[in-house]
Amino acid sequence: MNKIDMHAHLFPPISREMAARFDADRAPWLRPGADGQTGQIMISDKPFRPVYRALWDPALRVEELDRHGVDMQIVCATPVMFGYSAAPRAAADWAARMNDLALAHCAYAPSRLKAMAQVPLQDLDLACREASRAKADGHVGVQIGNHVGPRDLDDEHLIAFLTHCGENGIPVLVHPWDMMTDGRMKRWMLPWLVSMPAETQLSILSLILSGAFERLPAGLKLCFAHGGGSFPYLLGRAENAWHCRDIVREDCPEPPSHYLRRFYVDSAVFDPGALRLLVETMGADRVMLGSDYPFPLGEQDIGALVGGSTDLDAVSRARILAGNAVEFFGLPTVAQKTTAAAGNRP
69 near 55, Cβ under 8 Å? Predict the structure, then answer.
């Protein structure tokens, strides 16, 4: 069965000098390991995350995709690259540079690798301009963080950006980042395990309960990472609150379940029962294969959860593994892509 992994990350070999020209204190850079296989994402002098070569080496990435039977992978920035706290003009230059590097990464195997762009989301005009430039240059969509400082996704600035994307045919992946924490979650990756799913639920409910979906273009293609975070499991709680409390529904004319057809989620939930609930909640035509590759918290055998599900029929399985992504991103069929792949590799 064909597979398109629509949620995977890259981190180009950003030098310390390149990062320092953008923001010496906050811009990330890559410190290669002595073994040539591993590295460390750094922020100034502080280690941020250990990583390995597939994050920046497209040759190894394609080898691993072959091993997993993945026909195409759509890559996007590691969220620490966003640069939302920088001055807008500097962030715009940084985003353009990162987007060019992402396309260069994908040029190794252009029928196997596609890129989503990043934008300087702190400035509406610059973000819209870069999103449109990136689309014209060959990016298949845009990845954004789920908030910019205190601005959640229902902020009018961010709604205006989503409107631009909807009106210009630019698909959007919303990825949680800069997770809420006051220092109570110090160990065991708890910000990733607790706050990250909560951030995504916050984004979805912010759009629903603010009434934003009533104003956004119907054609906006919007996807939330990590299976929608906590949202599918807690939809019943939100639904009950909407019916029982006027302060919950004051800006939202329909119950939360009414808006499930307005967005997609990926399949990165790692558990058969969670996948079953996700598909029952969203519908098989609103879930796309996403692995969060190549990080340890991602799906280690890409597509195995969906491919091995006994709860999905063959049609639903095929839609989740590839068909929905073809429609969401407006891709040529996977068969066309894989036929051309061998001739496109250097």
Answer: no
